[in-house]
Amino acid sequence: MPGQEPEDFGAEILSEKSRMIPGLPPYDMDEQLLPRQPRSPCCCLAWTLLIGTMNSLVFLLNLLLMFVIFTVVLLPTIVVVYFGFQCHSQVLHSSARYCKSILDDNSSSALIILGFVIMSPLLVVAMAIYCSLARRLQLLVCFQPYSLALYKGGRWCHPGEGALCCARGCSRQLKAWV
């Protein structure tokens, strides 16, 4: 081996070790060893409706949470743009006292521009808050696959994830090959 470079020597050892491992074991032993039986057509339809309803409710919950967060975070932008459009003479030209005494066309234009300028960073903040909250509550884990409707013996949650909507009997041990 005097003619080999050190990099070649390390690659040779790595390839020898990889030949010694015949193959990786199944990803999830519980699901791989037990064959799953297909459901009857009526049972499959009922489970499909149940899972579809549950996934729709989870989607609506996520949508409601996103709407509330974006509304609260973007409230300053909404207010500033609203007053800018309300008091501008070319748009709505309200007869309110503050439009006549405080805001003229130039200040209304400035409010509109300010509202649209601060909207971009507030959108980023709102999305970061929603993503952080959805990750912390694990709301996206609550979506169930439709294979539960097709086959008997599936689980209602994914192993290793303890989301709010998952059954309590699920395993909390993470199984992944890295």
TrEMBL record:
<feature type="transmembrane region" description="Helical">
    <location>
        <begin position="110"/>
        <end position="130"/>
    </location>
</feature>
<comment type="similarity">
    <text>Belongs to the TMEM88 family.</text>
</comment>
<keyword id="KW-1133">Transmembrane helix</keyword>
<keyword id="KW-0472">Membrane</keyword>
<keyword id="KW-0812">Transmembrane</keyword>
<dbReference type="InterPro" id="IPR033355">
    <property type="entry name" value="TMEM88"/>
</dbReference>
<protein>
    <submittedName>
        <fullName>Transmembrane protein 88</fullName>
    </submittedName>
</protein>
<dbReference type="GO" id="GO:0030165">
    <property type="term" value="F:PDZ domain binding"/>
</dbReference>
<feature type="transmembrane region" description="Helical">
    <location>
        <begin position="57"/>
        <end position="85"/>
    </location>
</feature>
<dbReference type="GO" id="GO:0005886">
    <property type="term" value="C:plasma membrane"/>
</dbReference>
